[in-house]
Structures are given as C-alpha cells and as structure tokens.
Write a sequence for this structure.
C-alpha cells in the first residue's frame, strides 16, 4: 500500500487511527466549539479524536475561547486521502476540506440540510432540525451517559446563543432553549443575556477589517442546480458600520464572483437587535434572482428582506425553490 506524503504534520496521528473533527470553512462559533466538544466526547467514549478548524476565528469565537481560557484548535488545510474524519456543523463538500470525497467520513453531527455527502464506509450520521449543533451534542452526551464538563457547557451555550442570535432566529427550537437553560449553571454564567450581548458586541467590533475578509467572515458556497452561488451574512449590532462600507463590499463581491467563477454572490446584513436583514446585491444578475425568489426590488445595491434573517431556514430554501423551477 502506498503511503501518502505527510502534510500538516498529521500523518502520524492519522496512521494511529486518530479521527480529525472539524466544522465548515469560514468557521463560526458553532463550527469551532462543536469540533472541540465533539472531539472531547469521542475521546471520552474511547475513540481518540482531535479538533481542528478550517479557517480564521471570527471575532465572536475569539471572544468565546478567550473567556473560556482555551486556545483555538489547530488550523487545517488538507488531510491525506483515507484519513478518518468527523464532520460537525456541515456536510456539504463545497463547505469542507477540498478533498472531502477522498476522506473516510466516519461521523457527521449536523443541523443543516443534507447536501452531496457520500461515504466510503458505513458512517454514524446524526442530523436533527435544531437551532444549533451544540444542542445535538448535549443530546449525544446524555445518550452516552456522560456528564457535561463546565468548559464544554460554556462552549455549547456560546454556540447556541450564537447560532440562534440569543433565541431571535426562526431556527430556534424548544430544545435549544432547554439546552441553554440546562448548560448556563454548569458553565457558571448567571447573566445569559449579558453574556450574549458581549458576544455580539465582540462580533460587531470589526475595526478596519478588509472588505474581502468581511465578506468571507460568515460565507458559504451553495450549488443550486447547475449554478453555484456564494452567500455571506454579517450578523451585527451595528449595521450602520457595514452600510458605511457598502461600495467596497459590492466591489469585493464582484471580485469574488469572478475569482471563484460563481454565478452569483449575495451578502445579508442582519441587524441582530432589530431582527432585520438588508442584503447587498452586486449586479443585475443577483437583483433579478432576488426579485424572483423573494419578490423584493433591489435599489442602490440593497434589497430589504425584512424579517428573513436565517440563511439556513429562509434564504437558502427560497433560492433552492427558485432555481428548481
Ligand atoms: Mn456554522
Ligand atoms: Mn450551526
């Protein structure tokens, strides 16, 4: 058998059967914390696992890890073919390592729609329509008869607050609220609302971040039939800051569309506190699709999507419905 060349110093661990656990590209708080907590859960259950991330931490996740006293998981760019992996908070190949199809996916824990995932071996797949991977991870602990350690409770609670925008998102379920109420005392967080506001303030403190970085901070690529679109979201308590950079962002979107050979790029600007979404629309192409899919006119590069604040539950399904007709 041919031995693959070592990459990222991971060959020894993959040869030992270590499972690499990671969330999606352009990771958010759920993607990073789910990798950490699930790797810990697998290891405690007798399956050695290591958490990784597939991109830079966003400002909110950096705040969460700092408050938890944890280092970020190691950055991963590639794995040798045949490596054992566990996917959390995603399952689509366009949102994962570039050679996902060559990897040996053994576990998936996710709360997104099922995409193009295939596996080379029978795998343990756990999908539930919950607001957050963390809520599912709490269930897995209970099913395994394992208690939640305080630092894991803090990570899971943070992810629930992040993904549900502190229960504002229409993706929020009763199970997410119950999980947060259960986790907060274990995490030692008395003022959950105050902690959520601190997270959102950290996320919104964007400084002079480059426009292309801002576009890619919470950005996913989706196949729609024969087309491929990039859909970004900026969730912020300070939308005025983002709209102040509208011209730069529209240019960055055009550049990304050309560089990645996409059919369209959209960037939703979600006002967390007012629960509204105004979307940046870089060209007539996207404006036509937004008009057809949402019945919303684009004016001056902006389309007002009102209360449609969830990419997962509202934006993507509407675009899928449009492209499938
Ligand atoms: Mn995510
Ligand atoms: Mn998630």
């Amino acid at each position: 058998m041919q031995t693959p060349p070592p990459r990222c110093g991971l060959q020894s661990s993959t040869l030992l059967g270590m499972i690499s656990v990671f969330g999606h590209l352009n990771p958010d708080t759920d993607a990073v914390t789910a990798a950490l907590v699930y790797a810990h859960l697998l290891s405690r259950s007798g399956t050695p696992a290591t958490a990784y991330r597939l991109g830079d931490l966003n400002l909110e996740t950096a705040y969460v890890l700092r408050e938890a006293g944890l280092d970020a998981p190691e950055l991963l760019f590639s794995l040798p073919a045949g490596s054992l992996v566990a996917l959390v908070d995603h399952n689509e190949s366009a949102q994962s390592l570039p050679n996902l199809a060559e990897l040996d996916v053994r576990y998936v824990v996710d709360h997104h729609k099922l995409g193009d995932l295939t596996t080379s071996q029978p795998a343990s797949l756990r999908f539930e329509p919950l607001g957050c991977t963390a809520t599912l991870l709490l269930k897995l602990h209970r099913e395994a008869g394992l208690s939640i350690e305080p630092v894991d409770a803090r990570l899971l609670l943070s992810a629930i607050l992040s993904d549900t925008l502190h229960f504002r998102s229409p993706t929020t379920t009763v199970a997410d609220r119950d999980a947060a109420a259960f986790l907060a005392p274990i995490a030692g967080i008395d003022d959950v609302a105050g902690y959520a506001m601190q997270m959102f303030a950290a996320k919104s403190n964007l400084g002079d971040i480059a426009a292309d970085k801002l576009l890619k901070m919470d950005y996913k690529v989706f196949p729609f039939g024969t087309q491929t679109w990039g859909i970004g979201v900026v969730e912020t308590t300070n939308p005025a800051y983002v709209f102040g950079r509208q011209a730069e962002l529209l240019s960055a979107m055009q550049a990304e569309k050309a560089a990645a050979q996409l059919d369209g790029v959209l960037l939703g600007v979600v006002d967390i506190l007012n629960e509204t979404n105004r979307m940046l629309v870089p060209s007539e192409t996207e404006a036509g699709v937004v008009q057809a899919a949402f019945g919303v006119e684009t004016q001056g590069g902006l389309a007002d999507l009102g209360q449609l604040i969830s990419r997962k539950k509202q934006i993507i399904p509407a675009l899928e419905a449009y492209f499938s007709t």
